[in-house]
Amino acid sequence: MSNKQLCVRPVRDDDLADVAAIHHHYVENTLICVPELERTATQWQEFTDDLRVRGLPFLVAERQQLLGYAYVHPWKPGPSFRHTGEVTIYLAPGHTDHRIGQALLEPLLAASQEAGISQLIGAVAETAAAPRTSAFCQKYAFEECGLLQKVAHRDGQWIDLRLFQRQLAPPSGSDT
Ligand SMILES: CC(C)(COP(=O)(O)OP(=O)(O)OC[C@H]1O[C@@H](n2cnc3c(N)ncnc32)[C@H](O)[C@@H]1OP(=O)(O)O)[C@@H](O)C(=O)NCCC(=O)NCCS
After folding, report:
1. Among 151, 86, 69, which Cα is nearest to 121's?
2. Ligand 1 contacts CB of residue 129 (under 6 A)
3. pLDDT higher than 90, residue 108
4. CB–CB of 76/88 below 8 Å?
5. Which of 53, 68, 98, 161 is deepest in the core (most CB within 10 A)?
6. Is residue 101 in contact with ligand 1, taking CB distance under 6 Å?
7. Which residue's C-alpha comes closest to atom 28 of ligand 1?
8. Whose CA is nearest to atom 25 of ligand 1?
């Protein structure tokens, strides 16, 4: 499939129902969504507004319809962690393996750097889909840095999280 007409752009408020539908698919059908479960429309709006206030990127990919989304959210609360973000990318079912993840990740990395993020974390739940997601992380220079065992519990199962880290250029100038 060609990415020719694929448009990657910042999320708009009127995308959030489609974003929620993609997210819902993975919550319903997989165990990869940890820690976040369903968000209401209001919670998606609040979450998006919070990323905007922080200047963190939230992008969508569309070709006639919304095919995926990616954002960087604070890795941990607290000012000491302000230069560290966590990446989340989800593609609509049936649209994986067509470079849409790549099309979202590349501008996400650039926008993260512009936002003053110098470390990006990827946390991959160890499920059947993990080898693909881990390969995706490694392709984009996220180095594997450990396995947290049984840190999540969903639907009667303990889930391990494999952590990846990618260093971006440190923020220039004074440490704001
Ligand atoms: C993980 C995900 C974002 C990757 O996006 P994608 O569009 O499917 O991946 P791309 O087509 O851009 O592939 C880029 C690279 O990822 C790796 N990759 C992607 N699919 C792969 C697969 N099935 N097997 C092995 N490696 C794979 C490869 O390194 C590939 O590059 P290459 O083909 O040159 O080797 C997407 O598959 C997805 O949304 N999966 C379900 C949700 C999910 O797990 N999200 C991550 C949680 S944060």
Report:
1. 86
2. yes
3. yes
4. no
5. 68
6. yes
7. 136
8. 132
What lies within 8 Å, CB to CB, of 8 at 6+ separation is: 59, 60, 61, 103, 104, 107
pLDDT digits (tens, 9 = 90+) for 59-84: 999 999 999 999 999 999 999 999 99
> Which CATH number does the domain housing residue 24 bear?
3.40.630.30
Q: How far is the CA of 136 from the centre of ligand 1 (A)?
A: 5
Nearest CA to ligand 1 atom 43: 90
Q: Is 34 within the bounds of a domain? A: yes
pLDDT at residue number 38: 87
Q: Is residue 150 part of a domain?
A: yes
Tell me if 99 CB under 6 Å of ligand 1: yes
77 domain-assigned: yes
Name the nearest CA neighbour of 69 among 60, 78, 58, 77.
Answer: 60
Number of domains present in the structure of the chain:
1
pLDDT confidence bin for 175, thresholds 50/70/90:
low
Q: Is residue 32 lining ligand 1, measured as CB closer than 6 Å? A: yes
**Residue 69: domain span:** 7-167
102 located within any domain: yes
* pTM, 2 dp: 0.93
Q: 48-57 pLDDT, tens per residue?
A: 999 999 999 9
